[in-house]
Write a structure and sequence with these properties.
With 45 residues, this protein is mostly beta strands. The protein has one domain. The protein has no helices and two strands. A two-stranded antiparallel sheet has the order 1-2.
Length: 45
């Protein structure tokens, strides 16, 4: 997908407040990162 094909409407969605991290985890090793690569979503630690 080319960046010019993206629309701001594609990024508007409801996200419950309890799913938003307000503070970092106490143990940083427990953190996770979602990565979008080659059309797939990966989870990294």
């Amino acid at each position: 997908m080319h960046p010019k094909d993206l629309k701001i409407e594609d990024f508007r969605y409801t996200l419950p407040d309890e799913l938003i991290a307000h503070y970092p985890l106490e143990e940083r090793d427990s953190s996770r990162l979602l990565i979008f690569r080659k059309g797939a979503i990966e989870e990294s630690t």
